[in-house]
Amino acid sequence: NIERIKQMTFNSYELKILESLALPTQNNITFEDIGGLQEIINDLKDSIFLPLEAAKHFKREPSKSNNEDLFNVPKGILFHGPPGTGKTMMAKAIANYAGYSFLAIDHSILDHKWYGETEKNVAAIFSVAKKLQPTIIFIDEVDSMTGNRDSEHEVTTSKKSMLLSLWDGFNSGNDKIIIIGATNRIEAIDKAFLRRFERHFLIKLPDEKQRKQILQIILKDYVDPDFDYNQLSRATNGFSGSDLKSLCKSAFNSMYYYFYNKIF
Fold it and tell me: Which segments constitute the AAA+ ATPase domain (predicted)?
């Protein structure tokens, strides 16, 4: 909680990272806010939350402490697919459901113009995540910082090597930290990073049934119970979830201005 954070000591780099932090009490995105992706949500619950619960009830013998833990939660999850399909919302919902802090990393932090600053920021990301664990580190457009390392700048190579080293460090320990990446271009991600994302989830553009489910969530408080969701879902082929939300916002803005001009 906030009081716990106030009692901690942070350096200047960590304080900058804290600006991107959302505590569990500050994150209100739930799985119920996400339409059309129930199959992926069920898979996530099985692969993340079931091991978390199991670990509470089954204790390993000390002699097995160096063996692979059957209840390990994946330390790396990758969401890939077209833009606007709910990858960021899914990451936030995971954090909310699990009671993890949510640390969204801005690319400006990872691409500093001064030599050595990027590496210090990368180190601060992991140190903050460790201090405030359980924590989810979320990196949107992760391909832009974990792309193929052939013929790239020396500073970029150094940043990636450090990120891999820090990632491996908490992978080998008991830290409650999960890295979630999101990308529209999975093919552009370096293989070394892909291996560390233990679970990959493809989030496609929604089909007609999924679009209906998304629209029902967006419009549930704004339309009559007999509203024809089927017609609208058929008419929006090729729309992402983000496109559907923008469409609904545009429609309601148009309606508001129409009645406003009529009245005034």
Answer: 73-207
**CATH number of the CATH domain containing 254:** 1.10.8.60
Residue whose C-alpha is closest to residue 238's, from 210, 201, 200, 199: 210
Judge if 121 and 178 occupy the same domain: yes
Residue ranges making up the domain that contains 246 = 208-263
CA diameter of the chain: 78
Q: What CATH number should be reported for the domain holding residue 179?
A: 3.40.50.300
d(CA 49, CA 97): 9
| pLDDT tens for the chain, residues 1 to 264 | 678 888 899 999 999 999 999 999 999 999 999 999 999 999 998 888 887 777 666 665 554 554 445 567 888 999 999 999 999 999 999 999 999 999 999 777 776 656 678 888 889 999 999 999 999 999 999 988 766 655 455 556 777 888 888 888 876 667 889 999 999 999 999 899 999 999 999 999 999 999 999 999 999 999 998 999 999 999 999 999 999 999 999 998 988 887 877 787
Two structure tokens written together for 5? 């954070």
The answer on 198 and 243 residing in a single domain is: no
